[in-house]
Structure formats: C-alpha cells, structure tokens
C-alpha cells in the first residue's frame, strides 16, 4: 500500500494550493482519510479528515473556512484545497488513511488523532512566504 502526496510548493501569503494524495495497493473508498502537517521544530498536527461517506469532515480550527478536504473514491484520491494561505501554514503535509472499515462513525476525536491512521504518505512541502 502506498500513499503518494503531491502538489506542495512555494506560494505567497493569500495564495492557494491544492494537495493530492493518491492511494495504490488497496482501495480506501470505505475508509477515513486525513491530512496532517509538521512545521519545522514542531510536532505533527492534525489538519483535516473526511469519512468515507464524505458527509463528515473535520478541520483544525486554524484552517476552518480556508481549507477544504474532498475525495474521489473512483480515483482512490483525497484532496486538500488550501486558500488564503498564511506563513504559519508552512509545513510538510502528510496524507493518511485509516485501515478500519469506515461504516461505523466514531467520536470526532478519533479522526483528529494520528494514531487512528495506519498508512501514511511521504509528505509534500508547503512554503508560504509573507
């Protein structure tokens, strides 16, 4: 199983980027998928997640209203549209997938926790200049 994240880059504050994460080796159409990020010198933090049904999305407070997570199950791909980017969004962004069947809906805290995800991409770097 591989998760391939791409779409990062250098952008000015106020700009936009769209990250993609393509999964291969198995389908994740019934599984939660998420994005995390790690800024230099900081711990990895939750950014956004999406249940398989796409009716439940989760965001950390700092990105609400600016970032949108979505998925295309036919392509086994999850996206993170990032608008109004700020220098504090600078980080390496990692996509993640939960191996657990997503039919059951868990408490919100489940989707925020990195420990809930079993597969991780290699990360794509986002740099926002001021």
* Main sheet specs: 7 strands, mixed
What shape does the CA trace take?
A: globular
Strand proportion, as a percent range, falls in: over 45%
Helix content: under 10%
Number of helices: 1
Question: Whole-number average pLDDT?
Answer: 94
Name the helix and strand elements from N-terminus to C-terminus, one letter apiece: EEEEEEEEEHEE
Computed structural class = mainly beta
Molecular structure report:
There is one protein chain. The chain is mainly β and 130 residues long. The protein contains one helix and eleven strands. The strands form two sheets. Strands 2, 4, 5, 6, 9, 10 and 11 form a seven-stranded mixed beta sheet that branches. The radius of gyration is 14 Å and the shape is globular.
Summarize the structure.
The chain has 130 residues and is mainly beta.
Write the layout of secondary structure elements.
Layout: E1 2-6, E2 9-12, E3 17-24, E4 33-38, E5 45-50, E6 57-59, E7 67-72, E8 77-82, E9 91-97, H1 108-112, E10 119-120, E11 124-129
Parallel strand pairs: 2-11
Antiparallel strand pairs: 1-3, 3-8, 4-5, 4-9, 5-6, 7-8, 9-10, 9-11
């Amino acid at each position: 199983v591989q998760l391939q994240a791409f779409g990062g880059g250098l952008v000015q504050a106020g700009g936009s980027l769209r990250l993609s994460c393509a999964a291969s080796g198995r389908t994740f159409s019934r599984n939660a998928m998420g994005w995390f990020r790690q800024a230099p010198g900081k711990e990895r933090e939750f950014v956004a997640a999406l249940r398989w049904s796409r009716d439940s999305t989760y965001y950390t407070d700092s990105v609400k209203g600016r970032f949108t997570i979505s998925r295309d199950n036919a392509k086994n791909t999850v996206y993170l549209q990032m608008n109004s980017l700020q220098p504090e969004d600078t980080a390496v962004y990692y996509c993640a997938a939960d191996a657990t069947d997503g039919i059951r809906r868990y408490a919100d805290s489940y989707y925020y926790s990195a420990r809930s995800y079993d597969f991780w991409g290699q990360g794509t770097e986002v740099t926002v200049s001021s």
